[in-house]
Predict the structure.
Amino acid sequence: MGYSKAQKTRTHKRIVSIASKRFREKGLAGFGIAELMKEAGLTVGGFYKHFGSRDDLVAEAVNSAFGGWQRRLDVAKSGGPSVSLAKLIDDYLNETHRDNPGSGCAFSALAPEIARSDKRTRSLTSEQVRSDVQLIATLLPGRDKRAARSRAILIFSALVGAMSLARAVSDEALSREILKTVAELLKNLASTQRVVNSP
Amino acid sequence: MGYSKAQKTRTHKRIVSIASKRFREKGLAGFGIAELMKEAGLTVGGFYKHFGSRDDLVAEAVNSAFGGWQRRLDVAKSGGPSVSLAKLIDDYLNETHRDNPGSGCAFSALAPEIARSDKRTRSLTSEQVRSDVQLIATLLPGRDKRAARSRAILIFSALVGAMSLARAVSDEALSREILKTVAELLKNLASTQRVVNSP
DNA sequence: ATTATCTATAGATCTATAGATAATGC
DNA sequence: ATTATCTATAGATCTATAGATAATGC
């Protein structure tokens, strides 16, 4: 095993990458440092040369999870507006994403635990929410930017809530119904100029 | 201290009530049995005469949390349809609820952790989701029951997602924006016959 | 006789640190 | 000289159980 700076950087990234995945799968309290380091092929003692504390790892790993999902959004975006928002919704609200939280969206996997985390983690979360809302807003039709932002916030909330619920229920049919229903209604919402008819 | 059956029932309920609140505040792994029993004025040894395991407590306490919120929904419902759905939305998406998860909705406080819990907890969750969707559907206008159910699922998802996100971000203005925006759009959605204009 | 509760503790964690080792990098 | 990693461990948890005590309830 090597000890160069380049090697340390690689090791650091490997630890964060594994933690990022496992946190989404098992929760922020789902495993210990020894277990994590073992999966990275290391031992527990080396951990604190990479991170000041476990909370430091949480902040970095959650942020890394945001980044991974962000890249997927950016890919979806490259298809052009309107069409790609429908694609983004389908890319989010499906059974593959539901059954693989480790490679999925960190909000639907961790939002309530992030809410109980330290300031740094929640600051990074604020930035990511802003960025995701912004991205969805640009994919919405219509010239009214404020209205687009509002709708983007609704769509983002519904995506996160639907995935959280679809994972929490044990009834497979109900879980699928949640995913399909919300995907369909959001796609309608995304493709129209106004949110609702006035009464 | 007494040892009668009536006393044991009271003690049992007290433990569940405290756990139900603290789980929503601190997460399902947020405290130990010793700490819980101490808050109930008891010691750790007595716990296992009430529950077979910690997971048994989780199932019972999460279900109790559902019950508490259900009662609040039923109260909101007593105002009559349409008006009361707007009231329900405002009752959910506000800063008091955001800042007091211990007495609030168990889904927005715990959904991802419930997803990682045992079968029993998730079965109870399925029932509760069904019941909440049903309740929201009855408050929606229109004769088409299937359309009402679909919209109810969207509204429920958006409520849970918006609260989860509003709690996760550290930026107070962004948090408020999420709550207000989603509340407003959902109330529009709830008061109209059709979800969207056709293009 | 049964049992709700208590004290005490076994055994398994978990975070963090100390000190040794072996490599890098000046 | 510095440091990335290792082994080992301190000290604080945590779940669950054993056995004693004191009350209920037949």
